[in-house]
Every structure is written in structure tokens, then in C-alpha cells.
Specification:
heterodimer, A: Rossmann fold, 6-stranded mixed beta sheet, 3-stranded antiparallel beta sheet, 38% helix, B: mainly alpha, two-stranded antiparallel sheet, 11 helices, elongated
Chain lengths: 247, 242
């Protein structure tokens, strides 16, 4: 198992962002759905080892991230796209991706090729020398995805990866996720149900810090039969599960 | 030269021509064209710090403009404070910590837009911050040296504050790299500074005042706590890298 969570809790003051989550994941594309404030981003930040849980046990890539040496090894094999990608406006696309490749401790001789491969995968070659301050929101999102995959990660965490992408780019990105998911664990947090339906082999739905549904997109769709809220079958399933969790 | 294939279409990445994987060729060419060749300073820093990532953080520190400006203002403000109270042990002892905290804030979660991303990387974020501290002090010292040509006050600030702080932060980074722990490095730098200040007081016959002054108790306790924590951390059986 690349991800094993046991009774994870995370609180911010009195607010319980994540409230008793158990999860085991192997390879594949795993979608994390839920409304705003459900706890998806806190979950991903804990999986990215930037936020420790208040209680519970996390094991990533068969290691315990509480131990510094293990955490460092996990981070070498981790790709992370935060919800709000901060960037350095004066850096070029190549400089930014290369900087994070070096911070991920990719051996120096391998860095230029790793950067080129990552940029090609997200179709950023034409903007290689462009300053980040000159790029559109969609381009910046692709830069974020490129830095996340530059180290060829075994665990890839993507928080709202398709935000800002145009429809054509989203289709391409879903294909990239499916291709990556054949060999590694990809966890995608999103509130876009169509992303999950098109790319994910499994999905969990979070509400108020808890996982209230886990199954395949088809199983989520089946939950929506007879439910009226939502335009697409998967959306109806999403709404039906949320409504049941809240009642 | 790229030739059309049998169907008259130009080959595209993904095609195989004469057994040659064009994707692979293109990626190799792109990697060479796009790569950023590190300068001599960065290559030397990478060897000394045993980390190309830290070396890149070192040389790119001034290019992050807002954190750089805030850090420089903090460093010069603390330097001015030190100049105003040269006889105060407390001011001398806590000044480096105040300046370092200011720099860490500017380049840390306070202002750095990519902090969360950096925190998820293998190179420990505290080591990156320590590297930033060295870069800020070193470049400010260079600026101070240039200003010293024209101003006596600038010379006093440079030789009394910026250069010693560059030395102390460099020592801290060296210790951190050697011990593979930013905490150990910070403790070593702070300890070196305390010894320097107390030695100066001894030379001027003010040691008793430095030790018995109630003002000095807090920094002494803080230094002792830091050293103790660093010692415990460094002595753990499975010492990590954070």
C-alpha cells in the first residue's frame, strides 16, 4: 500500500477539518470529492507531509513520515500540487521547475532531462523561457503540474489540478492522469465531478471531515438513481450521498 | 534536417524514423537547450553544501525581490539598534536571533509564495532558510563594504555588524551541513556569537556586569535551552535531516 491512514484527525482550534479518516490506497487514480470545507485540502496537505495530523497514524510509501529520514525519502518520491500554487514571478518556467527538481534531490545530471520531459508532458515547451509573471492562470497550473511530476513520483497529490485549464487542456490532463495512474498512486482532490468520472478508478466523497462514500465512479452514479439534484448521473450520485450524509 | 515520411507528412514526436525514437531525441535536445548552466559560485556552493538544491536557493535568494527587501530592511534596522546600544549585553546577544527571525519570516511561510511547495520537498525547509540567512547577510555585507568607501557610519555598521553576522551565519550553515541538522547549525552559530560577545566583555573588564545583569538572564536561558535541545536532537539514535 502506498498510502495507509488510520483514524486520522486534524483540528484547527475548535474546527475539526479531518475527523477520523481511514484509507488504504495502492496504484491508480483516486478522486477525492467534496464540497468546500469538507477537509480535502487538509487531507492532501497531511499526505504531502507539510501538515502533521493532530492524531492518528499515516504511512506513506511504506514509511512513517514522523521520522525525519523516512520523511525525506518520502518527499523524494512525492509530487504535490497545492491548491494555491505560489510562484516566483521573476523565474522562467524552466528555472522554476528546475529549482524544485533540485529541492526534490533529483541527481544534478538528470535534472535537465527530467525538466524537459515534465514540460513536454504538459505541453509547455513553447513557454520554456517565459517569465512566470507573463503566464495565464491555465499556464501556471500546467507549470505546477510539471513541477509535481518532474521527479517521476510514486505518490502524486493534486489539489484542484484542472482549475483554470481550458476544456482541451482538461481532456489532455485527464489522459495524463490515467497514464500516470497505471504505475503510481495519484490522488486528485476536486469539486469537479466530471474530472472524477473521466479519470479516476476509485473515488471517495468527504463531508465535514469524514469519508462518507468510497467506491468506483459507477457505484457513485448508482447512488444517484431517483435523485433529482444534478445535471449528470455522477452529479446526482454526488448530491444524493451528500444529502444522506447531512441528514 | 527533418524529411517528410512516405505519406508526405512531416515526422512528429512519437514517430520512429529509421529505428530512432524521435521523442527521446527531441527531449534530449530540449533538455540541452533549456537547461540553466550554473555559474562558478553555484557550483562551488553545491560542493560545499553537498546539495545542488541548497546552492540554487543560495544564489536565487536576492532574486525573490519582496522577501529580499524586507530582509535587508530588518538586517539594517537591527544593525542600527546594535549601534545605538553598544554597551548593552542584551541587545548584542539577541540581535542575531531577531535578524534571523526576520529573514526567516520573509523567506518562510510569512511571505514566500511557494513556501508550501518548498516544505513538501526533500531538502529540509529549515536548511533552505539557513541558506537564505547567509545569502542576505553576505550580500548586505558587500553592499555595506561599498557604502563604507563614502561613509564612516556605513563602515561602522559593516565592520561592527554585517561582517560578524555573515561570519556567524556562515558558521551556522557549515555546522548544519556537517551535522545534517539546521537546529544544530543554529545552535552552533548562536553559541559562537555568545562566546564572542562575552569574550569582548571580558577584554573590556565588563564580564561581571554581563553575567550578573538581570537583563542578560533571558538570553542566557534561551541560549542554554537551544543548546540543550540541539544536543538532545543530535544525540538521537536515528538522527534525521530536518
Amino acid at each position: 500500500m502506498n498510502v495507509a491512514l488510520t483514524d486520522i484527525h486534524r483540528s484547527f482550534g475548535k474546527n475539526r477539518a479531518v475527523d477520523g479518516v481511514d484509507l488504504q490506497l495502492g496504484t491508480g487514480v483516486f478522486g477525492l470529492l467534496g464540497p468546500n470545507g469538507a477537509g480535502k485540502t487538509s487531507m492532501l496537505r497531511m499526505l504531502a507531509t507539510v501538515l502533521p495530523p493532530t492524531s492518528g497514524e499515516i504511512r506513506l510509501l511504506e514509511r512513517d513520515p514522523r521520522r525525519p529520514a523516512a520523511r525525506r525519502e518520502i518527499r523524494r518520491r512525492l509530487g504535490y500540487l497545492p491548491q494555491n500554487l505560489g510562484y516566483y514571478p521573476s523565474f522562467t518556467v524552466v528555472e522554476f521547475i528546475e529549482y524544485f527538481a533540485l529541492l526534490k534531490e533529483i541527481p544534478s545530471p538528470q535534472v535537465p532531462k527530467a525538466v524537459a520531459v515534465a514540460m513536454e508532458r504538459v505541453d509547455l515547451g513553447a513557454k520554456a523561457r517565459a517569465k512566470l509573471r507573463t503566464l495565464s492562470g491555465g499556464m501556471l497550473r500546467r507549470v505546477g503540474i510539471a513541477q509535481a511530476i518532474v521527479n517521476d513520483p510514486d505518490l502524486l497529490l493534486l489539489d484542484e489540478p484542472t482549475a483554470g485549464l481550458d476544456p482541451e487542456q482538461r481532456v489532455q490532463f485527464r489522459a495524463l492522469m490515467r497514464s500516470l495512474g497505471e504505475s503510481v498512486t495519484v490522488i486528485v482532490s476536486t469539486h469537479l465531478v466530471e474530472d472524477v468520472g473521466a479519470a479516476c478508478s476509485e473515488v471517495a466523497l468527504m463531508s465535514a471531515g469524514k469519508i462518507v462514500f468510497r467506491g468506483t465512479p459507477e457505484e457513485l452514479t448508482a447512488r444517484g438513481e431517483g435523485h433529482s439534484v444534478g445535471d449528470a448521473p455522477l452529479e446526482r450520485g454526488y448530491s444524493a450521498v451528500l444529502a444522506a450524509a447531512r441528514s | 534536417m527533418i524529411f517528410p515520411n512516405e505519406s508526405g507528412r512531416l515526422p512528429s514526436p512519437g514517430d520512429s524514423v529509421g529505428g530512432v525514437d524521435l521523442d527521446r531525441v527531441w527531449t534530449g535536445v530540449a533538455a540541452e537547450v533549456w537547461r540553466r548552466h550554473p555559474g562558478r559560485l553555484e557550483r562551488t556552493a553545491a560542493r560545499l553544501l553537498r546539495s545542488p538544491g541548497l546552492a540554487r536557493a543560495l544564489v536565487t535568494t536576492p532574486s525573490l525581490l519582496l522577501p529580499w527587501l524586507i530582509s535587508t530592511v530588518v538586517v539594517f534596522a537591527v544593525g542600527a539598534l546594535v549601534s545605538l546600544g553598544p554597551g548593552q549585553s542584551l541587545v548584542w546577544l539577541i540581535a542575531p536571533a531577531v535578524a534571523a527571525v526576520g529573514i526567516a519570516f520573509a523567506y518562510g511561510p510569512g511571505i514566500d509564495p511557494a513556501w508550501e511547495l518548498s516544505s513538501s520537498c526533500a531538502v529540509p525547509d529549515r536548511m533552505v532558510l539557513l541558506t537564505r540567512v547567509v545569502a542576505v547577510f553576505a550580500l548586505d555585507a558587500v553592499l555595506g563594504l561599498l557604502a563604507s568607501v563614502a561613509s564612516g557610519a556605513a563602515a561602522a555598521l559593516t565592520f561592527g555588524w554585517l561582517l560578524p553576522m555573515t561570519a556567524v551565519s556562515t558558521l551556522a550553515l557549515a555546522a548544519a551541513v556537517a551535522a545534517r541538522s539546521a537546529t544544530v547549525g543554529a545552535a552552533a552559530g548562536l553559541a559562537a556569537w555568545v562566546i564572542t560577545v562575552l569574550a569582548g566583555r571580558t577584554a573590556s573588564g565588563q564580564l561581571t556586569a554581563s553575567v550578573t545583569s538581570a537583563d542578560a538572564y533571558l538570553p542566557y536561558l534561551a541560549v542554554a535551552a537551544c543548546c540543550t535541545a540541539a544536543a538532545i536532537y543530535a544525540a538521537r539514535p536515528e538522527r534525521g535531516l530536518q
